[in-house]
Design goal:
single chain; binds magnesium ion; seven-stranded mixed beta sheet; globular; alpha/beta; 2 domains; binds NADP nicotinamide-adenine-dinucleotide phosphate; 15 helices; Aldehyde Dehydrogenase, Chain A, domain 2; Aldehyde Dehydrogenase, Chain A, domain 1; five-stranded parallel beta sheet
């Protein structure tokens, strides 16, 4: 019998009011059912929002350092359960164990950061232009936060949102991706065990169209923090404008790595292998394009193909496996269809390009790590997010040309340049249009205490991570205290 999971609303584990459920299976082995989850609807969301609204009144008055103490305990519990959480995540969404351990670690880092932020939720004081008057701006909680997350970082991304939201004094209605509801449930269990009061955190499982929409449209939800595809992000933006919610959108990417002739070739090769095929290419920051200077193009492609062909595909729990399956059937179909589009538009496959035929892959959503050469900047595989193990190689005549190609997309999340030329590196840092630029490191590798997010259609200008996310989850309140005993008119009495 598959394990049965529930929603957590108002301090109680409950089924969906409709009684409906959905199943989640291991993408490396369809026969393994991870669990059965409530298929919730609008009514369940209404209950969760009511619970979060009620709990807000006490939670907003809990001192921030006390809220931080709970989050520090959350970090301790995550440390204790790191291995268990990592294994559950690999079974649930397929990425290899080393990477799911990293995903949990990012959650731990985020918990400890939030823990200390409770004693450091700084405001500002500034001098007044009038005598005997005191000015300050303080951070205040906002209210009920709707949290909608994807499956590719099923622990890290929810923690990036939920921990700072809670620390700032907001309460939560959380809808995780339908592909990773078990990991999300484990996170909520940890929050409860650490002492988050009843009603402060609520989780509602179910489909994006149903549960996600209900949260975004709910008049009593004050803010939405969403990570996912650009298509869904745009819909959320439109819908949330009806009630003028504050909305943070972290969306798609089409990230590129540039390699110049003066770079350390071995290092650049390690970088692109990790950037393109880590998490089976299913990262928002995945290296989807490799832009090679023409002088080293042929030699680098030769080295790359050799290494890509040796990447070991398989179940992420097994030792020695480099690349796990795609998360589900749809995702693999998308990958397959982009491979066909690439061929139709004239690109050439030099590695992979197929579903593996061996019998040990037949019960998982596996796809061979794939490399295309002869890719032109106007090709769809050079422009559109694929979100799978497919790398498009492009050729550039110079650094400026490479940067021009890199910028030629609607997205702007991550970017990378391998070079030993410090002048070129600083020019690239200035001219690349992306939220994140790595020098001599791959496009993936965000650290929890640094701002994270993208420009252009990757987002709407907010940042997660580090100190920056606290601006999203709190509101500035400006306070003037006049202790002069008389009416003082700003801009008038003093000029
Ligand atoms: P997705 O299809 O957009 O789904 C993301 C979340 O939104 C899921 O929980 C989904 O629920 C829900 N959802 C779907 N339709 C909705 C709607 N109409 N209203 C409200 N919620 C809705 O994205 P995904 O396939 O899970 O994740 C991959 C995408 O996320 C890629 O584009 C990737 O680049 C992006 N991503 C971005 C970042 C970043 O920080 N920039 C990080 C990671 C991933 P269901 O699961 O039930 O469909
Ligand atoms: Mg699954």
């Amino acid at each position: 019998m598959a394990k049965k999971f529930r929603n957590y609303i108002n301090g109680k584990w409950v089924d969906a009011l409709s009684g409906q459920t959905f199943e989640n299976r291991n993408p490396a082995n369809w026969d393994e059912v991870i669990g059965v989850f409530p298929k919730s609807s609008k009514e369940d969301v209404n209950d969760a929002v009511k619970s979060a609204r009620k709990a807000f009144e006490a939670w907003r008055l809990t001192p921030a350092p006390k809220r931080g103490d709970i989050l520090r305990k959350v970090g301790d519990l995550m440390v204790a359960k790191k291995e268990e959480l990592s294994r559950q995540m690999t079974k649930e969404m397929g990425k290899v164990l080393a990477e799911t351990r990293g995903d949990v670690q990012e959650g731990i880092d985020t918990a400890y950061y939030a823990g200390t932020e409770g004693r450091r939720l700084f405001g500002h004081t500034a001098p007044s232009e009038l005598s005997n008057k005191f000015n300050m701006a303080i951070r205040v909680p906002i209210g009920v936060a709707g949290i909608v997350t994807p499956w590719n970082f099923p622990m890290a991304i929810p923690t990036w949102k939920i921990f700072p939201a809670l620390l700032c004094g907001n309460t939560i209605v959380f809808k995780p991706a339908s592909d990773t509801p078990a990991t999300a449930t484990s996170l909520v269990e940890i929050l409860i065990e650490a002492g988050v009061p009843e009603g402060v955190v609520n989780i509602v499982h179910g489909g994006g169209g149903e549960v996600g929409n209900a949260i975004v449209g709910h008049p009593d939800v004050d803010l939405i923090s969403f990570t996912g595809s650009t298509g869904v992000g745009k819909k959320i933006s439109v819908m949330a404008s009806e009630t003028l919610k504050r909305v943070s959108l972290e969306l798609g990417g089409k990230n590129a790595q540039i390699v110049m002739p003066d770079a350390d070739m071995e290092l650049a090769l390690e970088g692109v292998l990790w950037g393109a095929f880590g998490t089976t290419g299913q990262r928002c920051t995945a290296t989807s394009r490799l832009i090679l200077h023409e002088k080293i193009h042929d030699e680098f492609v030769k080295m790359l193909v050799k290494r890509v062909e040796n990447l070991k595909l398989g179940d992420g729990l097994k030792k020695g496996v480099d690349v796990g399956p795609c998360v589900n059937e749809d995702q693999r179909k998308t990958v397959q269809s982009y491979v066909e589009i690439g061929l139709e538009q004239g690109a050439k496959i030099v590695a992979g390009g197929e579903i593996p035929k061996d019998s040990n892959f037949k019960k998982g959503w596996f796809y061979r790590p794939t490399v295309f050469t002869n890719v032109k900047p106007e090709h769809r595989i050079a422009k559109e997010e694929i979100f799978g193990p497919v790398l498009s190689v492009l050729k550039a005549k110079s650094l400026d040309h490479a940067i021009q190609i890199l910028n030629d997309t609607i997205y702007g999340l991550s970017s990378s340049l391998y070079t030993r030329d410090v002048n070129g590196a600083f020019r690239a840092i200035r001219d690349i249009k992306a939220g994140i630029t790595y020098i001599n490191a791959p496009t993936i590798g965000a650290e929890a205490h640094m701002p994270f997010g993208g420009v252009k259609q990757t987002g709407n200008g907010h940042r997660e991570g580090g100190w920056a996310v606290y601006d999203f989850f709190s509101e500035w309140k400006t306070v003037y205290i006049d202790y002069s005993g008389g009416l003082q008119r700003a801009q008038i009495d003093n000029y």
